[in-house]
Write a structure and sequence with these properties.
This protein is 29% helix and 31% strand. It is of the alpha/beta class. It has 2 domains: 1-150, Nucleotidyltransferase, domain 5 (2-Layer Sandwich); 163-259, Nucleotidyltransferase, domain 5. The strands form 3 sheets. It has a 5-stranded mixed beta sheet with strand order 3-2-1-4-8.
Length: 266
């Protein structure tokens, strides 16, 4: 179903009851419209962008051509993808050191980058990340009180929730076009998170198995979950199942971060 057909099925006369969540990536925009009283509460779709234009120009173009972006919503969530994030214990965090921590993790800080952060109260963690200042200003002006998140924030909150379902150790891997993000949890507690820039299946499998071994995960007991933009899913699963018995694809894997904002009540 095309994005336009999907959008046309939504009754926007009731938009002030809905939650609009938007993920902004350098290769496109993803959307979730959440209607809490509908039988199927989520409307999920993507819109492509012009890669030759800046993200802010692409978003302004979508605002012009898609009226649903100018509706009033109960809540608007903006998820920033394709950005590095620093995960830090909330007990050791203050807003005054946010920029220093981000710089320490990234080694470079553009003057056009605004440093922001999210607290995950259930995990007692703070996620620090950057967003383009012009884009941040435009989104704040266009939407009514938008809330900003790093993509890491809803993912980590959701994965922590899922990891409490049993006593096994769990590894969650989020795939992007040119990177993978690995989250290792033990009954809700984050034990490791790391990112690797790679799009090759052989490299992805190597990094996953390397961390699996380093953390002493058990091949026949512990669990691996995959989500995100899975490319050659069949080949990826084939390679991983040689070494890991319990492997699952998370439902609607490429939208789980947008759904997680509602599922985890962020």
């Amino acid at each position: 179903m095309s994005p336009l057909t999907t959008i046309q099925k939504v009754d926007f006369s009731k938009s002030e009851q809905y939650t609009l969540s938007i993920r902004i990536n350098t290769d496109g925009f993803s959307f979730s419209i959440f209607n809490p009283i509908a039988e199927n509460p989520y409307t999920l779709f993507k819109l492509s962008i012009n890669p030759k234009q800046p993200l802010i120009a692409n978003f302004k173009d979508k605002v012009t051509n898609y009226p649903f972006l100018s509706q009033l919503y109960k809540r608007v969530n903006i998820v920033i993808g394709d950005t590095k994030a620093i995960v830090h214990p909330t007990a050791l965090f203050t807003s005054e050191i946010a920029e220093e921590l981000y710089f320490y993790g990234q080694k470079v800080l553009s003057p056009n980058t605004k440093i922001v952060y999210n607290n995950i109260e259930t995990s007692k963690l703070t996620v620090i990340y950057g967003i383009n200042k012009g884009l941040y200003k435009f989104l704040n002006e266009h939407f009514r009180n938008p809330r900003f998140f790093s993509q890491t924030t809803p993912l980590l909150a959701y994965f922590a929730q899922r990891s409490k379902e049993s006593a096994t150790l769990k590894m969650f891997v989020q795939f992007q076009r040119d990177a993978i993000h690995i989250f290792c949890l033990n009954r809700g507690k984050l034990t490791l998170t790391n990112s690797f820039n790679t799009s090759e299946i052989s490299n992805q499998v190597y990094y996953i198995l390397y961390i699996w071994k380093q953390l002493n995960y058990e091949q026949q007991r512990d669990e691996l979950y995959l989500s995100g933009a899975l490319g050659d899913k069949e080949e990826l699963i084939k390679q991983l199942e040689k070494y890991i018995q319990h492997l699952s694809i998370i439902d609607t894997p490429d939208f789980i971060d947008l759904k997680a904002i509602n599922l985890c009540e962020l």
